[in-house]
Amino acid sequence: MASIPLKTDPGFLQKTITGLTDQIDLFETFQSLSLKIISQFNLEDIFSTFTGIVREITHYKSAVIFMYGPSQDSYHPAWQSPEDCSNGRLLPLDDKIVDWVMSQGRWTVITDLQDNKANCIKSILPLKSPKHALGFMVILTEHTPSAYNRKIGSILEFVASQTAISIENQDLYSKINQSNAYMTDMLESISNGIIATDLTGCVTKINKNATAILGIKGKKIIGRHFDTLVSGALKKKLHEIFNAALDRNLLPETMISYSPFKEVNIFLGITASLLTDKTRETNGVIFSFRDMSASKEIERLTRLDEMKSEFVSNVSHELRTPLSIIKSYTEALITQVSPDDSDTRENFLTVIDSETDRLSGIVSNLLDLSRIESGKFALNYRMVDMVQLVNSVVSVFKPKLGNIRIFTDFEDTLPLINADPDKIKEVVINLVSNAAGFSPMGGTIHIGLETRKEWLLCSVADTGIGIPEDAIPHIFDKFYRVDNSDTYEIEGTGLGLSIVRHILQMHKGKVEASSVLGKGSVFSFMLPL
Ligand code: ADP
After folding, report:
1. CA atoms of 55 and 32, how far apart (whole Å)
2. Ligand 1 centre and the CA of 305: distance in Å?
């Protein structure tokens, strides 16, 4: 059995305590040195802390740090002590010796004996992390080898390995920073607005275009729920899109009109996709916003252009038809109908008369439009009896309506209204002529007059072909015509209702239409009493 040294050697306890104290001191030294080095985040500071510690320990005269290139087959100077007192003795280096020292991984004195005369020693301290050899430091110190012991060597090697780890970390940080900066540049360079959220809808990333397009103000956006950034219909829509994205429902691009600021209205195209990681785990949703205002405007102008071309061809057609009828009936009157055949002459003259009316109607519509556009469309106000006015229009139309029957229904004792009778007549003529024209299969037309609060209301209802629901908002636009070509070929210029609306607006009145496709339409206009 081993004897207990405490009893046999009274100095043992003291020695053990001293040894332990030394160990603790060494441990504390390591800890504080490590802390100093790893708290540095850029290469320059890491080198300056490292070389400062080495200088304190070795009191070197000169030193240089060499770092390996990426393929580790060459090294280059990365740091040099400012005052070079080496007289050229730091270099050259024998690569074989360097390789050997690096393979040993220890602080090694390499001065050859002849150099001892120079009164200094050269040593190499490897910079190695647990994974890689990054480089080494060549140190030139006073020739007092006895001053160096294994303890000092351990401290230097420890400091060098901590430095190597810090350099590796710093490299990692700069790569992460670079990749972050690259991602941010990419996000900011996308012309769409991008908002990424987590699964609860809180914003994790947003680019400047998103804040600009959506008019989002304030700096603290990250972490806020997306619905606190927008309002109204857009907020509701984003919720729908967000939920659909999470349900993995593919949604086509949603269009919405949004007003990010007062008096600014934009068309937004919105899409959303799931934000997934490498393992296809869903982490959130990415919204993409596209300002479609410019393309909408282009679409509108293109449509207007198309409508104008259609208009030119419609007008030409509209003018040519009555003109050719007038021409052929006149020719026949001159060359074929005998002067004694008064019935045929009267018949032909009636056709010529009505076609001339049609021509003058088209021309006056064109003139009206050009006057409206040039601001020369003036009103001649008078007190007008609407019953009389509507009756006069009905009497002109009645003989020409064929299998269409026309009825009137007037409220008793209607007040007179202050209006331009010619222009209001034009309105009624346009509406009745449309009602008749768009009833190719015959039917009935009802014209009503009544007072409604401070308005006088005139309605023209037909049982004709009707208007598709999506076309109703456009029928008062200039040149607009519903394409009925697959069912009925009804001629027109697309000007009548636009003129009607202008005339009524000038009278501070209004006009509206309702219709059921295949059943008929009702056009009502109101004039202030
Ligand atoms: P036009 O009659 O010369 O085509 P309008 O401006 O008067 O031009 O009318 C525009 C369009 O509105 C018409 O082309 C037609 O498609 C539709 N419309 C107008 N009135 C009626 C109606 N009573 N019934 C069905 N469609 C109508």
Report:
1. 16
2. 19
